[in-house]
């Protein structure tokens, strides 16, 4: 019988190939492989998967049989701004949707380098506005995202606030990217189990594409955090982006935002995608609990 330690060691061993591929595999090939893998995903029979056009933005609904009418999780996937939805994201967000008893809308935003900043951000903001236009109240919406999606979560909140749009109830960031201007200081870090320095440089260059990397909607650590909703940050002890999560949490807290930050011992970048890990289940349970604290009460679940 496998112990928790065995599960963790096995999962860590699987990271080596993914780390190498992120550094050297052409983005076009990687996305073709992801698209093929997405077609083979089999979710629990109690969760329905539906493609949807959110005002021109390709998206997917994950709809648990048991859900609260009007409650929505808007999820922004990671992938360095260059990689699309993965099967692991579909499975992880399914778990979150079930824990929240909410429909989850996954935004399949445009990808760099063909569509650099601000394309992905514009798509995420459009998807949120689409929810509002379809009668979903902001107090019944939570936003969450991992890695690049964590960056887009905060950037979307800042952009929506500046445009005068009512913000969602709360947000959660899993191993978020906060500072795309920090590339040179990260080039010599080779100890991250997931993020290869070469991969991070490829990702950042593709998305920034000549813009100022310190632009607050590219690197939210340099932005204005005032007026944002309650925020949760989870990061792994062993990942390079732990520092980004800590800086983002500190900036939000200094601006008077309600913040919850947890650093998980021994964990790596977006370990929550490895659902068999006890630490993944613990993180997802904590995220759901935090978001439910701030989401408005709603009707009884269907199903």
Quick one: CATH superfamily?
Alpha/Beta hydrolase fold, catalytic domain
Task: Identify the strand order in the major beta sheet.
Answer: 1-2-4-3-5-6-7-8
Radius of gyration from the alpha-carbon trace, in angstroms: 18 Å
Low-confidence stretches: none
The count of domains is 1
CATH topology annotation: Rossmann fold
Q: What is the string of SSEs from the N terminus onward? A: HHEEEHEHEHEHHEHEH
What is the strand tally?
8
Principal-axis shape: globular
Query: How many H/I helices?
Result: 9
Largest sheet: 8 strands, mixed
Main structural class: alpha/beta
Q: Report, as a whole number of angstroms, the end-to-end distance.
A: 35 Å
Supply the CATH class: Alpha Beta
CATH structural architecture: 3-Layer(aba) Sandwich
Mean pLDDT: 94
Helical proportion, percent range:
40-55%
Strand content: 15-25%
């Amino acid at each position: 019988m496998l112990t928790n330690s065995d599960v963790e060691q096995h999962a860590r061993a699987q990271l080596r190939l993914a780390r190498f591929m992120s550094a050297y595999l052409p983005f076009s090939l990687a996305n073709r492989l992801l698209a093929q893998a997405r077609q083979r995903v089999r979710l629990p029979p109690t969760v329905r998967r539906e493609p949807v056009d959110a005002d021109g933005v390709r998206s997917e609904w994950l709809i648990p049989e048991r859900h609260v009418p009007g409650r929505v999780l808007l999820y922004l996937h990671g992938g360095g701004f260059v990689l699309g939805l993965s099967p692991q994201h579909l499975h992880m967000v399914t778990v979150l949707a079930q824990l929240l008893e909410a429909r989850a809308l996954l935004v399949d935003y445009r990808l760099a380098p063909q569509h650099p900043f601000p394309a992905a951000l514009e798509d995420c903001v459009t998807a949120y506005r689409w929810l509002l236009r379809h009668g979903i109240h902001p107090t019944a919406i939570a936003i969450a995202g991992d890695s690049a999606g964590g960056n887009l979560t905060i950037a979307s909140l800042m952009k929506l606030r500046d445009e005068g749009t009512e913000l969602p109830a709360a947000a959660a960031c899993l191993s978020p990217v906060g500072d795309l201007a920090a590339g040179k200081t990260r080039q010599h870090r080779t100890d991250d189990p997931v993020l290869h320095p070469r991969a991070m440089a490829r990702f950042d260059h593709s998305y920034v594409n000549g813009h100022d990397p310190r632009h607050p909607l590219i690197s939210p650590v340099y932005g204005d955090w005032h007026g944002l909703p309650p925020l949760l940050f989870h990061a792994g002890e062993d990942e390079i982006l732990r520092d980004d999560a800590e800086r983002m949490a500190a900036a939000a807290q200094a601006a008077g935002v309600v913040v919850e930050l947890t650093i998980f011992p021994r964990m790596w970048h977006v370990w929550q995608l490895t659902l068999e890990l006890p630490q993944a289940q613990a993180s997802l349970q904590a995220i759901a609990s935090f978001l439910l604290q701030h989401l408005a009460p709603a009707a009884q679940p269907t199903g």
